[in-house]
Specification:
Strand order of the largest sheet: 2-1-5-4-3
Number of strands: 5
Radius of gyration: 29 Å
Length: 405
């Protein structure tokens, strides 16, 4: 067992995942460190151990993934021993919840680390441990497949799909089609933006619960799922219209975050209304610029946006765009009415304004973030662009927010 405990100790040191080897009556015969039992919820709470083992024995999978109160374990059997990995958390920064979880499982010595690890990472680690313990390396990709459960799920999906299609047919409910989606995408590809704008309201109207199908039995969830699908669609249209990937996906992320906080149908409706307006504004702006700007300029701007927190040089941009620095500098000035360096500073200051308004970072820290340190240099450039110092700008915004609230 010395070899086993050496391996378990090193894996715990590397990944902070508790791994224990236990026999059928719940005795621990392999552990990562001395006194591990006193901090182990599986050992301290026999009910948890028996739950994991019974779930495993009722499964057809070689390795079983099991959740307990929001924390994950994996378990497999070798000879007469159960090897159990966990607990791990699916969310970051949950140490308070982890301590509560350990207490609920009768753990007195709460020194066990409960790391953040996603399901894929935990499965990979389990596969590694399985290979070390069993010295079996074939078919490791199928260790977690549960034939019985997979067959049951497949049968359920097939049954539900058959009944769903029959219901739609009986009630003559036409689904929002791929052709509908493709039609609006082609407006963008062909540059028929007037049709796109006119169609955005039409698209919103036909993108109803009846046309997209029933995704949930509750109105709230149905509206939420519909909104997620709509945000995905608008993100794709925005990118096709010329909005940068960074901005499009950024707005998508923010929209989804706001949507997750909506507590009722009215809040979902208000959130989506605001998000639609922002998508429309970005698309119109991108289309307007696309008509007058060289593709090299758009590529140049996209590079600057993506690397806004870095130190950006003309040579790097020219290499990315594929033009000589002197020529790029000239056509950029002709198109934008300012030099590339001035545009970079303008964009950095725009981002800085948002950080000053919406973050609690100090001016010195923001200067570091924007690669514009020291603070004196950042302040000089900020004042040149905004006609006021960063401190004045921040104070005016906070004062305005205070009086409005």
């Amino acid at each position: 067992m010395k070899k086993t405990e050496f391996i378990l100790n090193k894996l715990y040191t590397l990944h902070h995942v508790g791994i224990r080897v236990m026999n059928s009556n719940g005795s621990m015969i392999g552990k990562p460190f001395v006194a591990f039992e006193n901090s182990d919820p599986v050992y301290c709470n026999p009910s948890l151990y028996h739950l994991l083992c019974s779930k495993y024995l009722s499964s057809t999978a070689t390795c079983l993934l099991q959740e307990d109160q929001g924390f994950l374990y994996t378990i497999f059997k070798y000879m007469d021993h159960f090897i159990i990995l966990g607990p791990v958390s699916m969310e970051d920064n949950v140490q308070h919840e982890a301590r509560t979880y350990l207490s609920k499982n009768s753990v007195l010595n709460k020194t066990l680390q409960v790391p953040y690890m996603n399901i894929k990472q935990l499965k990979e680690l389990t596969t590694l441990v399985y290979g070390i313990v069993t010295e079996e390396y074939d078919n490791v990709d199928t260790l977690f497949e549960n034939e019985r459960e997979n067959k049951a799920v497949e049968n359920t999906i097939h049954k539900e799909l058959t009944e769903y299609l029959l219901h739609k047919s009986e009630h003559e409910q036409a689904h929002f089609t791929y052709q509908d989606e493709k039609r609006y995408a082609e407006y963008i590809i062909r540059g028929e933006y007037d049709k796109l704008y006119a169609g955005m309201n039409e698209l919103s109207d036909i993108y109803t619960e009846e046309s997209i199908g029933t995704m949930s039995e509750t109105k709230l969830k149905q509206s939420e799922y519909k909104s997620v699908a709509w945000i995905t669609l608008m993100t794709r249209y925005a990118i096709m219209a010329g909005v940068s990937d960074t901005t499009s996906y950024g707005l998508s992320d923010i929209s989804l975050q706001m949507l997750s906080k909506a507590r009722n149908l009215l809040e979902i409706e208000n959130t989506m209304d605001s998000c639609n307006k922002e998508f429309e504004r970005l698309i119109k702006e991108a289309v307007s610029l696309k008509k007058t700007r060289s593709p090299y300029i758009e590529k140049c701007k996209s590079y600057i946006e993506t690397h806004i927190f870095e130190k950006i040089s003309l040579q790097e941009i020219a290499k990315e765009v594929g033009l000589h620095p002197v020529y790029l500098s000239r056509i950029f000035s002709e198109n934008m009415g300012m030099s590339i360096s001035s545009y970079i500073m303008q964009e950095k200051i725009k981002v800085s304004c948002n950080l000053l308004k919406y973050s609690d970072k100090s001016i010195a820290t923001i200067a570091e973030y924007m690669n514009m340190a020291p603070q004196s240099y950042f302040t000089r450039i900020f004042k040149k662009v905004m006609n006021k110092s960063p401190g004045q700008y921040q104070k005016e915004y906070l004062d305005k927010t205070f009086y409005e609230s």
